[in-house]
Amino acid sequence: MLTSGIPMEAFLVVSTIMFFAGVYGFLTRRNLITILMSVELILNSVNINFLVFNRFLFPNQLQGHFFSLFIIAIAAAEAAVAIAIIINIYRHFNSINVENVNEMKY
Amino acid sequence: MSGFSYTVLIPIIPLLMFVFLGLTGHKMKPAIAGIIGTTGLFISALLSYITAYSYFFVSGKVDGVYQKIIAFNTVWLQLTDKLHIDLGVMLDPISVMMLVVITTVSLMVHIYSNGYMKGERGFQRFFAFLGLFTFSMLGLVLATNIFQMYICWELVGVSSFLLISFYYEKPTAVAAGKKAFIVTRFADLGFLIGILLLSYFTKTFDFVSLTTPGCPAITQAAGVTFMGVSVVTIALVLIFMGGAGKSAMFPLHIWLPDAMEGPTPVSALIHAATMVVAGVYLVARLFPIFALTSPDALTIVAYVGGFTSLFAAVIACTQNDIKRVLAYSTMSQIGYMMLALGVSGYGGHDGLGFMAGNFHLFTHAMFKALLFLGAGAIIHAVHSNYMTEMGGLRKYLPITHITFLIACLTIAGVPPFSGFWSKDEILTAAFHHDKVLFFVEYAVAGLTAFYMFRLYFNVFWGEDRHYHHTPHESPFVMTFPLMFLALASIFAGFLPFHELVTSDGAAFESHLDIPLASASVGIGLVGIFVAMFMYMKPKGAPEKMAATFKHLYKWSYNKFYMDEVYLFVTKKIIFRYISRPVAWFDKRVVDDTMNGIAWISNYASFKIRGLQSGQLQKYAFVFISSALILALTFVYLFLN
User: Fold this and answer.
1) HSE-up (13 A, CA, CB side) for residue B186
2) Which chain A residue has the Cα nearest residue B624?
3) What integer is the mean pLDDT of B268-290?
4) What is the pTM of this model?
5) Radius of gyration over every alpha carbon of chain A, rounded to an integer in angstroms
6) Helix, strand, coil percent content, chain A, rounded in steps of 5
7) 3-state secondary structure of B329
8) d(Cα B636, Cα B628) in Å, to the nearest integer?
9) CB of B616 less than 8 A from some CB of A
């Protein structure tokens, strides 16, 4: 069934690196757009995980594929909403620096 | 047994009057509200007379014995299969007698109030409350079981409170209302515990089964003892405590003189004729238990009654407020009734005291209501309660004068007025039972005549005082009740009570004991002549007397300092040594524990609120690092 010689672990390593790159970016970047991009990275690393596990462990089933398709669709919607929010934040604060958006506190 | 079901209307009509006048009274003209209330009561009174006639003379007797008739009954609260609280109407000689007393006096007071309360604020409210009171009092006397009696007992307490503090803008009236309510409420606590004890051991609330002589439940309960005393005795003494509170027996009497702050018709209705005899009625209602199973409790009743009557009579001799004199006189007369019940035995001629107590209750209701309504007419004319501001009123108030004189002669026990007959029966009963009590009552009979005629001569004879305007006779609506009650006071003594109201329902022979009767009339006349000598043409004799018996006078004038004793006990002892520490514990321990918990959470929250900085990435960092730590912990714990 397996045609390529690439082992499963290789895919998982890539996806893990992507995930933590995304987490790191989410925590450290100050620009809201970059944060959004980091979130996309995290989502895509999850997608890879779904596909890899589906492909390697349950090759006869399709749930993993469907999940990734769902996630892609949701990611698109999320990006649209997030960008709309970012535009509004920009209009309000004249900046998209996340550190300026701190009015929701004690 | 049936045929009396209409009697349920007797208490219901005043209740409807209360609801109707209470809800819509403020929208109608005062005079109309008064007429409606009076008409309702008139119907009630008419029904009571019909009931009394058909009970006593047509269908109440079976084999020469008056039966207890349950005219109406409905289960109100089903507690267990056997134990339930009913509401109903029970007719027996004493309840029918009380029906007549209550509706008659209440009707007279209603009529009288149309004149006396004219122009007062809250005229409609006054009539509504009178309706409430009449309903509760009728419910009390018609109760089929001790719990219904207790409910109505509290209701009369409430209506008494409402009517005493009717002038709620007057601080003394408000204080008097509170005092009456708290004192009687305190006494009712004993009543309630007594009811619970009695029903716990007998498994019933029902009067019919409780008062059947030799009923197994009571005999069984009488066998149970607690600390060497039968529980029935304990229960009865506690129940009597409730009765003593309502009937202003020493030492729970302190509320009654203050209750005179209420409007005078209220004093006549509640604090002279009906509510204050509820305690007597209670003892009479449970009389078979008292007499047959617990003579000790009955002895307590007798001595409390005897002591109160002497105590109150001594105080009444020195008071100056006419309503207070009458209040102490009421206490004294109720003491008589209690004593009569206390010295009585059960059945036949032994039950003379029982009959005499109820007889005196009946006649006393008539003449004391008359005295109060007369006092109301006097106050109405001179705008003062104080004897020192009255004198020579016989010229201005002829009708009031004559009726008041009749009432005074009645209470002094001058034949042929009704007070003579009933008081004489009491003295006879006491004489055959206990000589000490007899001499106490004998002395009280003299004192009664003295203080009543002191009042009479001070008010109607002597010199004119400076009045705001010339005193004038009251309108007909006020004099009519006076005349009616005067007739009742004269003729009530001829009712054959020994055939109608007896301890076991059967008639017995009762004869006038000529030596005793003449002795009691003699001391009454002595009292009257002493009062006449001292007060008819004042020549300083009263002051000389007061100076001779300086200490006695002072103590009596200050009501034997009972109010001060109460204040001392409550303020200096109970408040200081019990309430204060309890309040301290509540404030410093209970409250402060709660406050401390609140303070700690508040302080801690204040300290950690900095964590909510509004910085999204900090939150994310905390979240992710915590998730990682958790994940690592689980890995470490479960995969190792």
Assistant:
1) 11
2) A23
3) 87
4) 0.77
5) 17
6) 75, 0, 20
7) helix
8) 12
9) yes
- Residue B42's pLDDT is 92
The amino acid sitting at B36 is I
Of B312, B430, B324, give the one whose Cα is nearest residue B379. B324
3-state class of B469 per DSSP? coil
Closest CA to B130 of B51, B36, B47, B48: B36
Joined together, the tokens standing for residue B289 give 């238990």
Confidence of residue B596 (pLDDT cuts 50, 70, 90): very high
CB contact under 8 A, B614 and A103: yes
pLDDT digits (tens, 9 = 90+) for A35-61: 999 999 999 999 999 999 998 888 889
Which residues from B are below 8 Å from A27, CB to CB? 617, 620-621, 624
Q: CA B205: distance to chain centroid?
A: 22
Cα of A98 to nearest chain B Cα, Å? 8
Residue B613 contacts A, CB cutoff 8 Å? yes
Searching chain B, which residue's CA lies closest to the CA of residue A30? B617
β-strands B225-226, B229-230 pairing:
antiparallel
Nearest 5 degrees, angle CA B624-CA B628-CA B632? 175
The ipTM value here is: 0.84
CB-count burial class (<10 Å; 0-12, 13-18, 19+) for B588: exposed
Structure tokens at B242: 């409730």
Asked if the C-beta of B620 comes within 8 angstroms of chain A's C-beta atoms, the answer is: yes
Residues in B touching A103 (Cβ below 8 Å): 614
How many angstroms separate the CA atoms of B419 and A63, rounded?
107
Helix (H) or strand (E) holding B229: strand B229-230
Lowest pLDDT segment from B67-71, B216-220, B244-248, B383-387: B216-220
How confident is residue B541, by pLDDT bands cut at 50, 70 and 90? low
Segment 582-611 of chain B within 8 Å of chain A by CB:
609-610
CB-CB: which of A23, A28, A102 is closest to B613? A102
CA distance A19 to chain B (A): 12
Q: Are B245 and B184 in contact (CB under 8 A)?
A: yes
Beta-carbon contacts of A60 under 8 Å, excluding residues fewer than 6 positions away, are none
pLDDT of B1 reads 45
B631–A contact, CB cutoff 8 A? no
**B57 phi, psi to nearest 5 deg:** -115, -10
Interface residues from chain A to B (CB-CB < 8 Å): 23, 26-28, 98-99, 101-106
Query: Could A98 and B617 be called an inter-chain contact, meaning their C-beta atoms sit closer than 8 Å?
Result: yes
Straight-line distance from the first to the last Cα atom of chain B, in angstroms, rounded to the nearest whole number: 92
Q: Cis bond leading into B93, ω under 30°?
A: no
Q: Which of B58, B169, B180 is nearest to B122 (CA)?
A: B169
Our CA-based measurement puts residue B172 at a distance from the nearest CA of chain A, in whole angstroms, of 56
Write out pLDDT tens, residues B244-268. 888 888 888 888 888 888 888 888 8
Residues of A in contact with B621 (CB under 8 A): 27
Cα–Cα dist B148/A30, whole Å: 80
Extract the tokens encoding B470.
């010339």
**Strand locations in B264-366, DSSP E?**
none
